[in-house]
Amino acid sequence: MTISSRFAVAVHILTLLETGRGEPLTSEYMAGSVNTNPAVVRRLLSLLARAGLTRARMGAGGGTVLARPAAEITLRDVYRAVECEGPLFSLHHERPNPKCPVGRNIQAVLERATGAAQVALEEQLRGRTVADVMAEVVAEGREAPASR
Amino acid sequence: MTISSRFAVAVHILTLLETGRGEPLTSEYMAGSVNTNPAVVRRLLSLLARAGLTRARMGAGGGTVLARPAAEITLRDVYRAVECEGPLFSLHHERPNPKCPVGRNIQAVLERATGAAQVALEEQLRGRTVADVMAEVVAEGREAPASR
DNA sequence: CGAGTGTGTTACCATAATAGTAACACTATG
DNA sequence: CATAGTGTTACTATTATGGTAACACACTCG
Lengths: 148, 148
Hints:
The structure is a homodimer.
Chain A: H1 6-20, H2 27-34, H3 38-50, E1 54-57, E2 63-66, H4 75-82, H5 101-126, H6 130-143
Antiparallel strand pairs in A: 1-2
The structure holds a DNA duplex.
């Protein structure tokens, strides 16, 4: 299966906040850019705030701002914040047959292999920050100006 | 979300076939080791055969064998065979607002970032073969002999 | 001080993917 | 020809997800 779109939307949200330059943005405004429901945005923001990436100001005139510089928020931070904290790969639903030499030991081996793969993925994500994404979005807009 | 257990079960199956040393194994036997239904195993085998990793002999006395040496089947081959061929990361369900500078360009940027992460994951998987898994299973059995 | 704006959270629904299960046509062996 | 075994389909239960509405709470501003 695929990794949920929460990651994509969360990066989108954080990029929007970076464009705000400290001005708090409302979930309704962000939902307009993402093209979804404000409550969906707030659910993501709840996870991001819990991870210390954003900070919300309640009440009228409130909204959300980045809790630290965009250059210090890696995509791995975002991934960890919004995706399930457990391992990326599922193992067997039912425990394999312990009487079979393969069944008895395969899961330990699989855990090592899939764990290494997940680390490789996260290391790649760690090499890019929200500031990088922001810069690429700007560059993209310059190369394909308002097309479509 | 998580990557389905199909990958784990498929690696398990291929490891079992390697233990068979050319003898065809039945889906019922393998289901006994995996601890699931034979039809589930056959569904996986169908995908593995389509990818050219296994070969089945029909009829009585039939079963499945590896189509090429275990040392030439990487975990990336297995991953590609049984997981959806599309991208690992989902993007937005609804297309983001094209009137927003961020919404208009974020998906192209996300595709690059998530694509690189997926490549990193697959490259890590490519470094391990079914023969490696087999060897690790044997080693594991030596270190933790028949415990539990 | 009170109206209004906006967050945080809950509950509920529709949809999709997954794994388990049974069934059956077909194929090859012996 | 009887049997063993594959390949495939259909159905079900479970789970994750995203969309939606609702509401209590918090804060600002007039």
